[in-house]
Every structure is written in C-alpha cells, then in structure tokens.
Amino acid sequence: MNKILQRIEQIKREGYPLDFGEVFNNAFENYKKIAIFAGSVLLLSWFLLLIIAMFGMVKIIGVEELKSMKDNDFAIFKDPNNIYFVYLQIISVILIVLIAPFTTAFLKMAQSAARDEEFKTSEMFSFYKWPYVKEIILATIILTLLDTAISTAAVSVGVAFVGSLFKIAIALFTLLTLPLIVFQNFTAIEAIKTSIAVIAKNPLVIFALLVVGFIGALVGLVGCIIGVFFTIPIVYSINYCLYEAIFEKE
C-alpha cells in the first residue's frame, strides 16, 4: 500500500488535525505568487467565452428574440417549465465540462508556486491530456449533473433555498476531488468517494476556509468589477493548500 492510501486509511480511522490559521496563511502566501498571472488568464478566458456565448445566442435565438427577452428581464431562462431554461441548463453543463481541465490547471499553478517552480502558460492545457482529461471530465459530469438536478428540482417545487444548501454541501464535500485526480492519479469515482470521506472528518474548519475564500474572491468586486478576476485565484490557493495540509504535510 503506497503512502497516500496509508494516509487515507489513517484519516478514516483517526481523523486529522487542521489548523485554520496555518492553512489560510499558506494559501495567502501562495495566492500572492499567482494572483497576477492567474487573474490575467481568467480575465482573457472570460472575455473570449463571453464573445463566443454572445455570438452563439445571436445565431441560435436571434437578435429580436433576445431584445424581447431583455425587456422581460430574461424571465424565460428562470422558468423551469420553459424550453429555454432547459437549453440553458444543458449548455451550462456542456461548458463546465469542456473548461474543467483548463480550470483544473490553476491547482497545478498553485502547486508550482508552493514549490517555487516555474509554471509555463502551455501548462494551462496540460490536463487535456489522457488520462487526466477522462477522469476530470467524468468527475465534473457527475458532480455538475447532480448539482443541476437538485437545483432544478428545488426550483420546480418552490424551495430554491434548499437547493442552494445542497449545492454548498456538494461543493464542500467534493472539494478534494480534482486535487486527488491530478496529483494522485485517482479515478473520478475514487476521488469523489475519498474526498467525501476525508472532509467528513473535519468539515467545519474546511467550510470556514471555503467561506473566507469566497469572501476574498468577492473583494475584487469592490470599486472595480474587473478586479474579481485577480481575487478569484485565492480559492485555488486555498484548495491546493488544504490538499497539501491533509495529504502531504508529513
């Protein structure tokens, strides 16, 4: 049995200590190293995706129909019984799946920063290679479909708040899924199951770290909305440093 499997078995038996301050400080130092580069990549990527999305909507829906939707505050996209709501959900899932290997590379960027190693721009596409891409996409499909199904069901029965709670729970307990796939070569199912089992041993501290990371990411909205692209990387730094603290500290 290799070290990571031994560590997981130990965690399942004994749990593990997790120092909020230590993890956050490490994550903040890590973030400072990647903020500019990661933020620039996020900004450029978002800009390109926005152009593609706008072009696609014009081609598929039409300019006049979009103007009508805008006048009605795009209400049809919020109605679970409307076909456009279904289209939006399908497109969202496809888009999330396609860009998942790209966004996963931010974890690799955080690892390189933690080890003071150079991270090249070409590495942003490194997880589109086999077998990473298969497991990342499979894990993303499973979690996204689960999230979408619960959210849609909650909205349909008028309890959107419950759906939001389930979304938060899914995000929390599967937080270690992608790090385990890219750093330990776990399969998607193994990574999801292991993430749930490990985080269940210490959920409160990890949830607190997630909340702080979310608040930190939103700081970029203050004053200049574009700044959020340069604060979002704190989430990836926290994710990596949390993985490191749990599995690699020893």
Automatic annotation (TrEMBL):
Membrane-crossing segments per the record: 34-63, 83-107, 136-162, 168-192, 204-230
Would you say which domain of life the source belongs to?
A: Bacteria
Keywords assigned by UniProt, alphabetized: Membrane, Transmembrane, Transmembrane helix
**Protein name per the record:** Beta-carotene 15,15'-monooxygenase
